[in-house]
Amino acid sequence: MVNIPVRMTTRRIFLIASASTAAGLCLWTVKKSWKAEAKITTGPNEEVTIVEFSDSGQRQGTIRVPKVVKGESEWKKQLTAEAFEVTRHADTERAYTGRHWNMHDKGLYRCVCCDTALFSSETKYDSHTGWPSFWKPLAEENVKSSEDLSFGMRRIAASCRRCDAHLGHVFNDGPRPTGLRYCMNSASLRFAKFAS
Q1: Active-site residue among 111, 113, 163, 183?
Q2: What end-to-end distance do the CA atoms of the chain give, in Å?
Q3: What are 133-149's pLDDT values in tens digits?
Q4: How far is Cα 139 from Cα 156, in angstroms, rounded to an integer?
Q5: What is the pTM of this model?
Q6: Of 35, 81, 94, 106, which is the most buried if we count CB atoms within 10 A?
Q7: Is 183 a catalytic residue?
Q8: Which tens digit of pLDDT belongs to each residue from 63-83?
Q9: What are the extents of the domains in the chain?
C-alpha cells in the first residue's frame, strides 16, 4: 500500500476544486452573455411581416406586427408541457402520437403560441412518417427556415416567423409541385376547422 501524504492530497483537492470553480464561472459568464445577446436581437420593439388569413382560409393581406417575445415562465403558463418543450426548446414529439398526424378535416393549422396561420389542409399529405406533413406553408412569409446541426445531423428547422416557435423540419423528399416535406409537430399547431 502506498502512503500519500495528507498535505499532497489536500493540495490536489484544492487545485481540482479551484479549476472546477473557474470552469463553472466561465460557463456561467458565457451563458449569461448568450442570454443578453438573445434579448438584444429579439427585443419587444422588433416587427415582422406576416400574411394574415381568416379562419375560412381567405388571405387578408400582408401586415407588419410586433414580434411576440415572452419569458419562459409566461410560455409555461400558456402552453401544455409538451407544446412548451417542442416550441420553446425544439423538442420532437414521438411519431404517431400527435393529434394532427392523421387528421383529414379541412381547415388551417395555426401556431399554438401566437395564432399565426401556418399551413392549410389543402397542402397536407400522408408522408407515412407519423407527423403532420405539408408540401408548402400557407404563406412563406409566416414560416422561417434555419440550419439545425443538432444530434450530429444537418437539417433545416422550420419556425414561426412571429414568435420563433419551433415547428419541425423541412426535407427534400416531398411530393410535387415543391418536392418539400414540412414535417411538423402536432404540439406546435392549433387546428381551426373550416365552417361547413
Answers
A1: 183
A2: 85
A3: 999 999 999 999 999 99
A4: 18
A5: 0.76
A6: 106
A7: yes
A8: 999 999 999 999 999 999 999
A9: 44-193
